[in-house]
Specification:
Structural class: alpha+beta
CATH topology of the largest domain: Elongation Factor Tu (Ef-tu), domain 3
Oligomer: single chain
Strand content: 25-35%
Helix content: 25-40%
Number of helices: 4
Distance between the termini: 91 Å
Number of domains: 5
């Protein structure tokens, strides 16, 4: 369909054909503005948001992580084996003349108090002896009363001349002898009662009965031996056997963990005595570890112990910092010129993935933590200090 010029439709078609290029130019210009803005943001915005570049290292010098270990208290663990025992074992026997045991009142494993009766010995004969001595006291008391009365009558008659002074002196002597006999009788009764009291076998102190070696009907005496064994206060100990070298490191008060055979638990203890001598045959000494009472700690049983001792102060390093070769153990340190230098060291106790350095370091050096195997002495490096190691 065509439109002739000069008509209304022809004029409209002419205007539409002239507007199309102008609209196309506007779209092109708008697109160019958007692209220009995006390019400017990409260039200038990235430069502003980019993080600051790391400080450049020296040309060819590898980065290495270093640490200044300082000096820390180093704990050393000493392992030992030994036997369990009562810390203060008390043997109990017959203190008196003895006789036939009439009753046994305790069993092993029982707690007793100080002075508690453990067993009794028949005292029928001794009781009769005590009764006889008590009667003699009555006789002596009567003699003393009579002698005192006669003396008073004589003293009232001597002034009248009926009795001589010599008779009065004899009556005074009679009165004093009666008083002495009374004292002797009383002393004899006290002695017999003390003897009878010793027929009761008593606990010398509070504690735990470990063994019982007597039964009713048994004849006992002072030569019979031990009838009961007690642990004073129930306190136990482990007698740990240590070599000469380990014994030198153990001190009174050192903490220890004791594990009896057959038990997976560890019992906390403390070294309370270190042997002052070494057995010349075994070249070992004994450290005595005090333990609180527990039924699992049976005297005579076998146990192992880990004793924690203080080995002094020394630098500690992670195991990754250590290297070794045919010349021994060593680490790399970084000197003031930022050069790696080999330093031979002697190792101390190892604990918690760290190794104590016995000799070779003061703790103030910058020690390479890792990658020491790829370094050479005198090589230039860029140290990066690691904090909190």
């Amino acid at each position: 369909m065509t439109y002739e010029p000069g008509t209304l439709e022809g004029e409209r078609q002419l205007l539409s054909d002239e507007a199309r290029p102008r609209r196309r130019r506007r779209w092109i210009i708008a697109l160019l503005v958007v692209l220009a803005a995006a390019g400017a943001w990409f260039v200038f915005g990235r430069e502003k948001a980019a993080p600051p570049a790391a400080a450049p290292s020296e040309a060819g010098a590898p980065n290495v992580t270093v640490v200044v270990p300082g000096s820390q208290a180093v704990a050393r663990t000493v392992s030992a084996t030994g036997s369990l025992a009562a810390r203060r074992e008390m043997p109990v026997g017959v203190a008196g003349e003895g006789g036939m045991v009439s009753r046994v009142l305790v069993e092993p494993g029982q707690w007793v108090g100080a002075g508690q009766v453990l067993a009794t010995v028949d005292r029928s004969v001794q009781a009769q002896t005590a009764a006889s001595l008590a009667a003699q006291i009555g006789v002596a008391q009567s003699d003393l009363t009579l002698a005192q009365a006669e003396l008073q009558r004589a003293q009232s008659l001597v002034d009248r001349g009926f009795i001589s002074k010599a008779d009065v002196q004899r009556r005074i002597a009679t009165r004093d002898a009666a008083a002495a006999r009374l004292q002797v009788s009383r002393a004899a009764l006290s002695e017999q009662r003390a003897r009878n009291a010793r027929l009761d076998i008593r606990a010398p102190a509070a504690g735990l009965i470990l063994t019982r070696g007597v039964e009713p009907g048994q004849i006992v005496s002072s030569g019979t031996g031990v009838l009961f064994r007690m642990a004073k206060g129930g306190e136990m100990e482990m007698r740990a056997q240590l070599s000469e070298g380990d014994l030198q490191a153990v001190r009174t008060g050192s903490r220890a963990t004791v594990m009896p055979v057959g038990d997976t638990r560890g019992f906390a203890g403390q070294v309370w005595q270190v042997a002052p001598i070494i057995d010349p045959q075994t070249r070992q000494g004994i450290a005595r570890i005090a333990l609180s009472y527990d039924p699992a700690l049976r005297p005579g049983g076998f146990a192992s112990a880990a004793i924690t001792t203080n080995a002094g102060s020394a630098p500690e390093l992670p195991q990754s910092a250590l290297q070794s070769d045919e010349d021994g153990n060593y680490v790399f340190i970084v000197d003031r010129a930022n050069k790696a230098q080999r330093r031979n060291v002697t190792l101390g106790p190892v604990d918690n993935n760290k190794v104590a350095i016995a000799t070779g370091l003061t703790g103030n050096e910058r020690v390479v933590l890792s990658a020491g195997a790829f370094l050479n002495s005198g090589q230039k490096v860029t140290p990066i200090l690691r904090r909190g190691s």
